[in-house]
Design goal:
The chain has 227 residues and is an alpha+beta fold. The protein is 23% helix and 33% strand. It starts with a helix and ends with a helix.
Length: 227
């Protein structure tokens, strides 16, 4: 976590907007609650048993008696300008707590450019493991809002940059091998998922720039103070 605190301090010293700094330093540990996340899949704050420090985590579930699609979303702290923040990936700890259905997740983003989703599914195993969801053009695919529409015809401008510049909904969900279009439901399953330590990963070049630029700024200030 120190890495993200450092980035926040560097951002502040360079005058980068607080919203962007918040995205870079945000870590959802779920130690005190569900932190603005929502779900139709019975979201629950579990006070202990989370990844790493055994703290809290977010649990979503679909029982065997009521199978349906499994997802959780956030439209508060995980919105805004991901592009300006230089975020290259979202990482989190996940745990397939119970079955019988296998869990295969993808990240989904809503914004002015329409809906963009992870190209590849991420299988989630039992036990806490760390997973990464890339946000580059190689990682995400545009999802039409109508399965009968030709590519690029549905939902916003169809440009990834337009969505990353203003993310309005941030979602993690179990899905088909092909991303489910908006307005349609993924397959119905029975499973329980634990989510913990959701955090943004900056581009290496952005992080290096912040370090170099801040070092130069602090050196200049030190020289001024010694005159």
């Amino acid at each position: 976590m120190k890495r993200f605190i450092t980035i926040g301090l560097l951002s502040a010293s360079l005058g980068i907007s607080p919203a962007i700094g918040d995205l870079l330093t945000q870590v959802d540990t779920f130690d005190a609650g569900i932190q603005g996340w929502a779900s139709g899949a019975n979201p629950v704050h579990v006070a202990s048993g989370g990844a790493g420090d055994n703290g809290g985590f977010l649990q979503i579930s679909r029982p065997v008696s009521d199978p349906f699609h499994l997802a959780a979303y956030n439209n508060t702290q995980w919105t805004g300008n991901f592009l300006a923040a230089g975020i290259s990936a979202i990482e989190m700890d996940l745990n397939a707590l119970a079955g019988p259905s296998a869990l295969n997740l993808r990240l989904v983003l809503w914004g002015n450019g329409g809906v963009w989703a992870s190209q590849n599914l991420t299988p989630v195993a039992n036990g806490w493991n760390h997973y990464s969801f890339g946000l580059t053009a190689a990682d995400l695919v545009y999802v039409n809002d109508d399965i009968n529409s030709p590519p690029g015809s549905g939902g916003g401008t169809g440009l990834l940059a337009d969505t990353l510049q203003k993310v309005t909904i941030f979602q993690i969900r179990h899905d088909y091998p092909t991303p489910t279009p908006p307005g349609y439901h993924p397959d119905h399953i029975s499973a329980t998922l634990g989510i913990d330590n959701v955090q943004a990963i900056p581009e290496p070049t952005s992080f290096a720039y912040l370090v170099v630029a801040t070092g130069a700024l602090l050196f200049t200030r030190a020289r001024r103070n010694t005159r």
